[in-house]
Amino acid sequence: MSLIEIKKLTKSYESGDECVTALMEVDLEIEKGEFISVMGPSGSGKSTLLTILGGLNHPTRGDVVVDDIPIYKLPLEKLADFRREYLGFIFQSFQLISYLTVVENVMLPLSITDISSREQAKMAEEILDRIGLRGKARRLPDQLSGGEQERVAIARALVNSPPILMADEPTGNLDSKTGKEIMELFKTLNEEGQTIVMVTHNPENIEFSTRTILLKDGRVDGNGA
Amino acid sequence: MRLKDISINNLRRRKGKVFFLILGLTMGITTVVTLISITRMMNEDISKKLDEFGANILIIPRSDDLSLSYGGMNIGGVAMDAQTLKDSDVPKIRQIEVRENISTVSPKLIGVVEIEGKKVPLMGVQFSEELRLKKWWKIHGAPPKNPAEVLLGNEVAVWLFKSTGDSLPINGKSVRISGVLDETGSQDDFVIFGDLALIQEAMKKQGVLSLIEVSAFCNTCPIEEIVRQISKQLPQAKVTAIKQTLQTKMEALDHFKKFSVGISVIVLLIGSLIVFTNMMASVNERKREIGIFRAIGFRKSHIVRIIFLEALIVGLMAGIVGYVFGLGVSHVIVPMITGVKGGALHIDPLLAIGAIFLASLIGILSSAYPAIHASKMDPTTALRAL
Q1: A100 and B12: CB-CB below 8 Å?
Q2: In chain A, what residues touch B380 (CB-CB under 8 Å)?
Q3: Strand, coil or helix: A70
Q4: What is the ipTM of this complex?
Q5: Triad A137, A142, A148: Cα angle to 5°
Q6: What is the mean pLDDT of chain B?
Q7: Which of A24, A64, A223, B339 is the most buried (most CB within 10 A)?
């Protein structure tokens, strides 16, 4: 049984009088421990695919089953719980909360759990240590470089040990050297068993992943190794 | 970290906006606290003035006989020796439900005594109560200190050609004149005031009363209610309320109360609107942030709680500051209205709690729509980048 199963997934949007189909009859299976790169030109539907996989965007037709859970059959609040337990998001442009310190940003997914504040701080510090940001825990995001902010975003996504890590253009706002460092971090995480689904424009990032899915006009164009 | 930390940190970030938000709500609470304090002080002022007016309830024996009057007040069949009021009736008046509103109870026995061939009206009173009731009395000499001393009305003193220190024979008993009243322009000028027990004994009417004068004031119930309750205790007596100019004052106070309520409602509505627009703007500014919260697994109820916590913190602060300001403003304004110096600041815990509760309630109610609106935001629209 695959960790993620997508069956006949179609997503259409109303745009004025027109109906735009972003994804058309997509079938996909992702196994536990895979590092998937989703590539494709602008408008190919890769961001739509990521939001649907992430439980943020209801499909028009088709099913998304994660760990045997048909996620779009869950009530909305249960779907929120699913996102908290199963997914770690790394957004484009980091999307850190500007008025929270580094450690507070990392603790954000834990703030709605029963974990004590002391335990939360311990967990956050452990993950910050792992990504090399221990000394900057009390800083605000705007006091960090782009690469450091990306690392904080990764720490936030990993702090509650989710089975799946989802990343949207994780190197889009970084210089090539920092981008490569981040991709190496992703590779290490994957080697430790972390399942990763990453949307990227950058062909250089593909070499770090275990499989590439190419999207074109809302359809899967190829399944590279 | 807990949700409250997110709320507190967000408020800290928006210091300027939060200041105006608290200011808007504070102005509303200050107005309400000031108006309540003014109304209360005016009430107390009227209550004090009532004491100066003297009695406002008269209790006389129920009688079908010829009526007599005292000071323009009907005192029933006194001359016909109606004996339905007794000393034992006095404590009963202080047993009514609204007894805390009774200030003074002054029992009296009225009679006539012959002194040096002249017939003079005589009144037995309890001086401790009578002197409280008639604060306008000015005495040449001193008030009687023992039962063997009497007080003379101004006209009686002239008529009998007696002054302070002289002796008077009352039914064979000699008493000393401790003082003479200044002219009052009332019935009191023609009366000899003696100790109630002494007069009762002299007139051989032990335990008997002609009338009881009561001074009472009720902030929360009409004087008629006090009258009704006394009548219930003393079914054999006729209890009458004396309408005074005070009623006009009470009506003016009532109008002021209505005006205060109107102003308070308007000011609080403006405060609510400030909170609403500010919270709505804050929610719209935070679309992206709310999208992140939702994407990482926050439930709608978590978003609502963050917004409500912010509103509650703002409300609590506005309530505390509003109460303190209201206290200060009323301390300055009240003496101007009542003409009485304010004295020390009077902190009313109930009003303080009420002000804080009201501010918090307005904060939360005004934020209800923005909070629900925020919780319904679509995370993908909020996070356009995704």
Answers
A1: no
A2: 51, 56-57
A3: strand
A4: 0.90
A5: 55
A6: 84
A7: A64
